[in-house]
TrEMBL record:
The organism of origin for this protein: Streptomyces viridochromogenes
Molecular-function GO term, any one: hydrolase activity
Gene3D superfamilies in UniProt: Amidase signature (AS) domain
Lineage of source species: Bacteria, Bacillati, Actinomycetota, Actinomycetes, Kitasatosporales
Name by which UniProt lists this protein: Indole acetimide hydrolase
A Pfam family assignment: Amidase
Keywords for this protein: Hydrolase
Presence of keyword Transcription: no
Domain Amidase: 14-386
Superkingdom assignment: Bacteria
Keyword Hydrolase in record: yes
Amino acid sequence: MSSLISADHDPSDAVSRALRKVQETEATIHAWTLVDAQNARTAAERVVDGPLRGVPFGVKDLIDVAGLPTECGSSLRRGRIAQTDAWLVDRLRRAGAVPLGKTVTTEFGYFHPGPTRNPHNPAHTPGGSSSGSAAAVAAGVVPFALGSQTAGSLTRPASFCGVAGYVPPVGAWSTRGISGLSPSLDAPGVLAPGVADLAVVVKAVDGTTAGVPESIRVLVWPGTELADIDPAMLDLLNRTGQALASAGAQTDDLGGQGHTPELADTHATVMAYEAARSLAAEAKHPQALSEPLRALLERGRTTSDADYRAALGTARTARERILDLLTRVDVILGPAAIGPAPRGLAGTGNPVLSRPWQLLGLPVVTVPGHTNAQGMPLGLQLVGHPEHVGHLLGIAEHVESLIRGARRSDD
């Protein structure tokens, strides 16, 4: 993104390039629900000076852009026009960025997929629910795009599409103007080609500056207690841990300290209970909802208030424990997904490796840079302390350089 924020950068040229890339790629990847070419060109001509001056970006179709529809991947919201920008879109406009249009989301940010395909192989899912945003960035259409996460909705597509992703601590960035699923879990986020690009956007939004601490302390977490992890993903994790140690980092295993199976189950309880209330009006039209979403809402409807309160209590206790752990280490390093993007478009993959950390409201960075033998991307995730996001981003950039360096050596 550095070339797009240089002093001689021309905003109109940047928008025109993005629109040409849409024409070149959209018939294959289907990343966009709407491209607002006229308004993007006008905005580029009138753009305010700022750290993202004239940089075009995509907006997940759960996030409001004034004057454009926010349809949430559902016929029930068809034609709903946003009256104002979401908080995050407004912040980015004030930084000089230009919304190019709306990107595909799964139905209400849950599992039912849209038409988007993975740019690395169109026979594979891009993940979800931030499907279109991940694909648009991976295809080089826009330098960054907005997504959101309730379970693994940003981390997983970032991994599947080979791009970087950032989910801030829950509550750090306002969800005003975002159609949410679970208020305790929802967070907006950003996808970009690399971690350094993420850092530029994050700084423009909230002023955070990336930086690496004098010594790096890492807990490695393979996630094997939650799912069968693809061997290539485990190999990437092990090699990255070894590279960090060789570069001077202190590394150890998370082991059972995370209690992640309990946290994943607790996340599912909270998500279902809150989704049933967030989408209570939509639940009155079951024929317009997918089977996975109907099942989620039914689970939430039948979850008792007592079980929900108990789940929140479990989350609070676990958050205190993990935050204490993260005062003694800098990051937890693990797989961003259980493997590469699955073949087929009927599903979006398994979010289980994100559930524990999203329940606790922790910031997460997805780090790209590696592929399996078939050329499909593999990503790792770094989980950090909410008060040390700058260190999280700086360490993630360091990890990305190690991954890419190892890949060049393999080549």
